[in-house]
Amino acid sequence: MKFILPVSDFNLEHTLECGQAFRWEKLGDFYAGVIGEALVKVSLDGHELVVETGSPADKKKIADYFGLNEDLPNIYKEIGRDEYIRKAIKKYRGLRILNQDRWECLASFILSSYTNIPRIKKMIASLSRRLGKRLVLGGMESYSFPPAGRIARADIKTLRGLGLGFRAAYIKDTAQKIASKKFDLDELEDLNYSEARERLMSLKGVGGKVADCVLLFSFKKYEAFPVDVWIKRGIEELYFDGKTAAPEKAAEFARERFGAYAGYAQEYLYHYLRHERERS
DNA sequence: TCTCAGGCACTAT
DNA sequence: ATAGTGCCTGAG
After folding, report:
1. Which nucleotide is at minimal CA–C1' distance from A229?
2. CATH assignment of A2-69, given 3.30.1330.130, 3.30.310.40, 3.40.430.10, 2.60.40.10?
3. Tell me, in Å, how far CA of A253 is from C1' of C3?
4. Pick from A6, A8, A31, A7: which is nearest to A21 by CA?
5. What is the SS3 assignment for A141?
6. To 10 degrees, what angle do helices A72-79 and A262-271 make?
7. Which of A124, A180, A199, A223 is most buried, most CB within 10 Å of its CB?
8. Which nucleotide's C1' is closest to A168 (Cα)?
9. C1’ C2 / CA A244, Å
10. Does the structure show a pLDDT above 60 at A277?
């Protein structure tokens, strides 16, 4: 099916290539990716987001996935508290935080530890190809992200064979807890940010950074401020006068400075720090 | 060959 | 609480 979502303040490229999701690929003038159980093609034409899916899809869910329900101008007003962030917003206007599948998001960021984005994408692709469901759209094919049960039952050697390395044990352990309902992801929805964060951190392979990514990218807990090495260096340089700060301190500072949408500030700052600062 | 990449667990203070 | 260290793997 094919449909159109009207959009404003939306930049597809920034949104899909900012590192929050690992399943999108640019193919000419459109992006192909997987949302849940659907292979999806999207392109942006002015104020129209053109969406094509291989399986029936709920328009509302797709709009929600792309973060289209958030009032971006208001968010900019909230987080625009200094020159750095305002400059970053100017450069990356239209970047929206996605609302991804919770399990896939958690698993993906467990895999993100001590590696780089191309390799994270590779791990997710091979895991999906091996244990996920085949999806087709037109001439394209891809695979859904495997449900927790599939990963829980896979043996550790298989997972290592897919290139997961030491992360294989972490993801399997977490998959087992989810599949056996010892850990219910959806219950986190009703907890406040720090309670939910603490719960997530009880899982193996989930520290503060990964927990924040999951809360930000799949729970709409926008006060989450993931601190990776880049953001850490940036915060130290811009706000701590070059002095080193523990990741938790940097995150705490950022939540106080940027408020309820600190996570949005993180996305903009991250890209500003990583790609564009020197050119501005 | 070597270093480094979007962390985390484990151990020792 | 806080600091140090090893970890699968692949790209540059």
Report:
1. B6
2. 3.30.310.40
3. 21
4. A31
5. strand
6. 80
7. A124
8. C8
9. 14
10. no
